[in-house]
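Input.
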Amino acid sequence: MSESGSIAREYFSCMRTGDLAVLDLFHDDAVLMGLGARTTGKDAIREFYTKAIEEGGPVPGEPVTLLTSETKEVAEVIIQLRDGSTVHAVDLFEIEAGRIRKLTYFIAEHPPA
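Output.
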């Protein structure tokens, strides 16, 4: 984990700039779960993020940390997509040895204010 102590902040910082260095935050055999799908291993996760960044162009706002411990972090964030839509996400990061072992994300449409 970084000196700032927040995997979520590092993760969303990479996502905000479309930086595939986000993959460096994951273990080689990490698991990504969300929207009814399970993606396992760094190669499959790389494919997922490459497609998500290219097609969706997600730009997350500043995450709000809901919970943090040595092995878990939960963050809430609003994400703007390239098509102008906005989603509300809650991400559960399971952390081992300073990297993401498992990331489970929950997403809902976020209606305009």
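The beta strands are 26-34, 37-40, 59-60, 64-68, 72-80, 86-96, 99-109.
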